[in-house]
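Annex B. Sample input.
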Amino acid sequence: MPRCLGIDFGKKRVGLAISDPEGIIAQPFGAIEWDDLDELIGHLKAIALEKHVETVVVGHPIYPSGDDSEMSREVGNFAERLRQALSDVKIVLVDERYSSKEAEAAIRETGKKPSRDKAAVDAVAASLILQTYLGRYVR
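Annex B, continued. Sample output.
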């Protein structure tokens, strides 16, 4: 069964999460540091093909009021580039308010310091974003 890929998009690093084959559980899948958007898109396309991804869920950073932020416009542009590169894959934006804060709290609960492993924070945030999608929109 096809999987879903979750993305927590950042200007320097992208956190990733992947669903189990049944589309029930999201788990962190690492992070990619990037400085070239075309190269990043290429990496994501390779992952999508290798993991048989049917849907990519991108965190949409909006203000608590629900208004778009500057970053939400960047994410929208990123999502559009993904749509062009992955024409057979569904690209979905999901509200990601507070996902990074929740990810930091989850990492603190393990006794680790989130400030020492930003890639782990991004990957956990991506898994929270993906889990939100799986819980609300799948099945």
